[in-house]
Amino acid sequence: MMKSRPYLSLGDAIQQFLERHGLKEKTKVQEVIAQWEQLMGKPIAGNTEKLWFNDGVLYIKMSSPVWVNELSLARGKIRELVNQRMQAPVVKEVRIF
Q1: Kind of pairing, strands 93-96 and 57-62?
Q2: 62: left (phi over 0), alpha (psi -120 to 50) or beta
Q3: Distance CA 70, CA 29 (A)
Q4: Residue 90 has what DSSP assignment?
Q5: 3-state DSSP call for residue 59?
Q6: How far apart are the first and last CA of the chain?
Q7: How far apart are CA 87 and CA 91, in angstroms?
Q8: Which fold has domain 24-96?
Q9: Which residues pair with 44 in a beta bridge?
Q10: pTM, whole model, 2 decimals?
Q11: Distance CA 25, CA 18 (A)
């Protein structure tokens, strides 16, 4: 008699693989970078020079001091927006320069 194994959807199997190999956070980070314009809108995305992530910190390099000032005031909101969209606490802190 064969034991019946539960079947996983491809999506569930991929999620398990990513979690098992510590890649889930990295894929979330890449999602944030890929969806930056959708998350923040064209004006902010168009003035973002560089965007990267390291140890829970989202770094955003803007094109001018005016943008740095504007986004610095909204760091908490940016963190909440990104984490909500990713459905995970990916961003612990936002640094803008």
Answers
A1: parallel
A2: beta
A3: 23
A4: -
A5: strand
A6: 64
A7: 11
A8: GMP Synthetase; Chain A, domain 3 (3.30.300)
A9: none
A10: 0.74
A11: 9
Residues in the chain, total: 97
Cβ proximity of 16 and 53 under 8 Å = no
Residue 49 tokens read as: 């020079």
How far from 18 is each of 22, 25, 82, CA to CA, in Å? 6, 9, 20
Please check whether residue 75 is in contact with residue 96, taking contact to mean a CB–CB distance below 8 angstroms. Answer: yes
Q: Judging by beta carbons within 10 Å of its beta carbon (0-12, 13-18, 19+), is residue 24 exposed, middle or buried?
A: middle
Q: Which residue has the tokens 């693989």?
A: 17
Q: What is the pLDDT of residues 29-84, one digit of tens each?
A: 788 889 999 999 999 999 999 999 888 899 999 999 999 999 999 999 999 999 99
Tokens of 30: 């890449």
Give the burial string for 69-82 (b: 16+ CB within 10 Å, else e).
eebeeebeebbeeb
pLDDT band at 25 (very low <50, low <70, confident <90, very high): low
